[in-house]
Amino acid sequence: MGVVVTGTVPVEEFALAHTRSTVPSVEFSGGRIVKSSEDEVVPILWARGADRDEIREALEEDPSTEDTEILADLDSEWLYRMRWTERVRLVVQMILDSQATLLDAEVGAGSGVWSLRVLYPTREQLSSTYEFCDDNDLTFDVRKVYEMNSEPAGQYGVTEGQFAALRAACEGGYFQVPRGTDLDAIGEELDLSHQAVSERIRRGMDRLVTETLLIGNSRDH
């Protein structure tokens, strides 16, 4: 069964340390990062919070990345495709050696760490990352570890009850404008009270936002 891990890695031990040092206000965030057909790590990251030319110049000088190109320009943020070099040893080991998938990576303005969410096929492969860090004096500060379950929401830490409520709400049009259903109707479908449905939806939404949009600011509940 797959294992999802959230944790942090110091910027200086990971990627784009030079860029973050040169342009402290820049923020990077990205979705799924995998290896390319040439066994290279090719991330696609959004950059924001600084001048485009400053970011470009810093990336060109950054020893952790090569072949940087802009895929989208939205004036205040830019989507970059780049190739991370072998200096980014931790993520290379996670993805290439442990058969893991880096689901999210984010570093905020002024932050000294990257916040990561990683999917490992098994706990044994997670252990290989621990061993790699110990052998190479690297830091992977794990904050949460949870097993994937049969439901799609398992990788985000949502409970079965929260998932059922969110699914019923979404399928019924609760999040649409105007709403296609209400809490009473959802509660009747799930055999729950109005209050119970409301709490499950709110807690489930809180968890989803925390584990996706706010991964760099994850909170313990």
Automatic annotation (TrEMBL):
InterPro entries: BAT_GAF/HTH-assoc, HTH_bacterioopsin. Residues 159-209 form the HTH bat-type domain. It comes from the Archaea. The keyword Transcription applies. Residues 19-142 form the Bacterioopsin transcriptional activator GAF and HTH associated domain. Keywords: Transcription, Transcription regulation. This is Helix-turn-helix domain-containing protein. It comes from Halomarina rubra.
